[in-house]
Amino acid sequence: MKNIIIILSLILSIVSFSNAAKCTSSSCSSINTKCINYYCNPQVGCYGIDKCQPLDACHLVSCNSNNGNCTQTPANCDDGNPCTDDFCHNGYGCYVIPNDCDPGVICQKNCNDNNPCTDDYCDFSNTCQHSLKDCSDHNSCTIDSCGENGCTHTNISCDDNDPCTADFCSIIYGCYHQPIECSVKVPCSSDSACNRNNLCETYTCDLTSNTCKYSSKFCNGQPCINNQCMTGDIYN
């Protein structure tokens, strides 16, 4: 059986080669019709190309088999939908654009609720939706709100009314307070009397002057904010 398949393959190859060998420009053109011109490809033999080609993507072409005349007919791009405007592009063909009676267009034109604090949009069913606007500026040093003029961002006050701290604000972490030397002295008789519940400072009672001494907590060069050591840079 295998030998029979090999023999048949050889026969087909010989026939194919024979047909290709017989292919010439003149032999192929001799079978031209009014509407098809034939050409020779030594690998595959004669092949035909329609004489009539469309002018562009916006035309349909036909050929008269009796005289070979070509007729160019403009493409009909009417999709039968009154809510679309129909056009044709020479390179791409027909396309449509929704017009004023299209449900999606109607929704878009009537979806604005004139509320600066909502985002207005049409969903997949062409129903108008109003979602609250996200006014967050991702800045921990501002209070974000929305009013008649839209989103506003008001700087917060980090003043802790403590003359012995310097007050700062980090965009990432918010307010933080660093102990500083000051003229206000806190009286004490023991270390516990100096505790101000600020885990970002260390304290001790100077028994010589009976006043508290404060210093910043050591955080390996990083800031201490909201009672804990932070990592990364702080941008004021």
What would you say this structure looks like, in words?
The chain contains three helices and 16 strands. It is elongated, with a radius of gyration of 43 Å. Strand 13 and strand 14 (211-216) form a beta hairpin. The protein is mainly β and 236 residues long. Residues 1-20 and 232-236 have low confidence and may be disordered. 14% of the residues lie in helices and 36% in strands. The strands form eight sheets. It has a two-stranded antiparallel sheet. Strands 3-4 form a two-stranded antiparallel ribbon. A two-stranded antiparallel sheet has the order 5-6.
Protein topology:
Blueprint: H1 2-22, H2 25-29, E1 36-41, E2 45-50, E3 59-63, E4 70-74, E5 84-89, E6 93-98, H3 103-109, E7 118-122, E8 128-132, E9 142-147, E10 150-155, E11 165-170, E12 174-179, E13 201-206, E14 211-216, E15 224-225, E16 228-229
Antiparallel strand pairs: 1-2, 3-4, 5-6, 7-8, 9-10, 11-12, 13-14, 15-16
